[in-house]
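Limitations
The structure tokens in this dataset are predictions for the assembled complex, not deposited experimental models. Users should treat interface geometry with appropriate caution, especially where small molecules or nucleic acid strands are included. An illustrative entry is reproduced here so readers can see what is and is not provided.
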Amino acid sequence: MIDMQDAAFGYGADPILSAISLRLAPGSFHFLTGPSGAGKTTFLKLCYGELVATSGAVTIFGQDAGTLDRDRVAKTRQRIGVVHQDCEFLDHLPIRENIALPLIVSGRDGPAQDANLDELIAWVGLSARAHARPPELSGGERQRAALARAIIMDPDLILADEPTGNVDWDMSLRLLQLLCELNKMGKTVLIATHDMALIRAAKAQVQARVLRLAGGRISAAGADL
Amino acid sequence: MSFVSDTLDLLRGETKADRVVPRSGQAAKLTVAVSGAMAFLAVFALALSLASGRLADRWSAALAQSSTIRLSAPAAEMEAQTWAVLTVLEQTPGVDSARALSDDEQRALLEPWFGPDLPVADLPVPRLIEIIETPEGYDATGLRQRLAAEAPGAVLDDHTRWRRPLVAAADRLRLLGWLSMALILASTAAMITLAAQAALASNQQVIRVMRLVGARDVYIARAFVRRFTRRAITGAAAGAAIGMLAVALLPRAAEEGGFLTGLGFQGAGWLLPLVIPLLAGVTAFWATRIAAFRTLGGLR
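Predicted assembly:
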């Protein structure tokens, strides 16, 4: 699904990431942990093609990320659901349309998708807030909306960057539960977090692997929970 | 993104794709206002250009079909040489008619300079003979040679030296009109490009979100292009309508008013300003498209 061979990335002389080699297998669940500034977000951006490795190779769904043109990057992103900590939305559109945005941009929206959309909104517990604008939502509601938007296209891979950074513990557990359910449905999940309690909480639900990122390198890769 | 498919898209109502770009913003108002103002000016530039064209044609046609022979001779020979000139003219192909101006007509011509009581008969004033040409015209060189032989005091003035600067001036005015049109279009393009760039800059979050969820550049650019093209057409249609109304309210063409009262459209010429909103739309389409792709090219 994602394959990195000796991948590195940096601006100028100082590399942020170096000698990264790993493989995210289909259906696997990974945590990416490490201190702030370790390069977790940069790593995720390499995974969904926003950044291109400055050396080494990154393969996304069997395609060399370095040779993908902009259209292919866009097409590839339709197979990847991304949840950011600050989960940006289009503030002028109701949350229902924001969640449906991936369908709209890929031309797959329409009456046939409305039932699925409503079902998904109910699954993340936002039915009552579907017509609210993003600024009217709480942090937890925004995170759930971002998760719903990330999975509306039934992606193969879900990347979450500090998805519980702005929510309380109860909401963190709820989001984790949603991600674990998605993994049980066969989705590959990679969560970047420095919240060790969250990682421990996942232990009871899924078999996850922890990737530790420090000094620009992945260490302790493959440590099972 | 083909021009044809995007043009067809423009004719449709607002789609969900259009809604991803927020409606409000200074850039929106600026686009409508600039398009309106430029279209208003374009109507006048067009009117000026068309009026100059008509003037150039009229002057050219009027002066080209008439010429004058100036006959200087001693008083005793004046009558004989006048008849000789008229005889030559009668036999010259391309001359429709010719006549010698009467003393009264010559006095009227000189009156602005010498006053009303000029004794033309007592002065050595040359006799003027007016020639009206056929549409085919005559051979000026041949006529000059024959006049030199039959009436040595006759000088043919075919108005070339008068006509050329007048026609050139009118042509230059017409060119200036078209140049103004081109400058107005270029200014519109520049303003819309700036407005589009401002809109793109203020919608960085929209673009980021769109890219994140897998929108292709073409899709994002279209949303902006459609929005700006519609605004430009709307503004230009209003500006052109007001401009046409203003031109229609100008005084009608009158002989005593000269060029100024002839500024306007005639007949089918009234349809030409209707092209201005379309031109504004095409200009906005390309200006926004280029600005959008340039901005999107900086992202991945």
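Some entries come with short summary sentences. For this one: Chain B is about 65% helix and 10% strand.
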